[in-house]
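ugh ok fine here u go
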Amino acid sequence: MGDSESRDSVLDQFDCSDDGRATGALSPKYAEIIVIRHGETEWNAVRRIQGHLDVDLNDVGRQQAVAVADRLSREPKVTAVYSSDLKRASDTAEIIANRCGILEVTKDAGLRERHLGDLQGVVFHEAAKDNPVAHRSFVSNREDEEIPGGGESFEQLFQRCTSALDRIARKHKGERVVVVSHGGTIRALHRRASPDNHFSGRVLNTAINVFHVSDEDEWSIKSWGDVAHLNHTGFLESGFGGDRNSG
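structure:
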């Protein structure tokens, strides 16, 4: 879902006043977690692999962050904003928090992108030539394949980021919170919530993805890939990141 239907699916969880603003509360049995990919960076635009390297938002990325923040400020109230501690995510989160009246962003390293080892800083189309061993690990289908140079496997990423989201959900039952993270991390969260529905698309910059995590440790996806707020800002279809080989 990438249009007003996904926004409506969120608002359906609440009672609304005459002007359409939500006024009710969520069920105390689950947390609603709005997971958002950070805004665009210059490295996204030139398809350079970021991983754990700290890269700033570019001008488009800051505009995207303002657009998603403005949208969230007009939707049901959020009670907390969490973020990866990498700057491209935390800067996006700060813009959201300021617009939504949240005083502080809670940074959690568990929400970081996958560590991509020796490929970090390499332009994607040059990776196979510059470091063929690391590239083979990068594109491997093996869940336990670690990337040379301290890189993580898919399974290590999965365990790290799902544990982080579980911690957040346990603290915020009956609440609506925002989490700003990264393409590869968000894809791993999708797998946890929908293990039988293989997701092969891309997670676009500042796309909104809404998860419900219950006190019985049940995860579900209420909406996915919503970028309706970018109609006047735009998003980079061709940029690197947000797909299976996200970095």
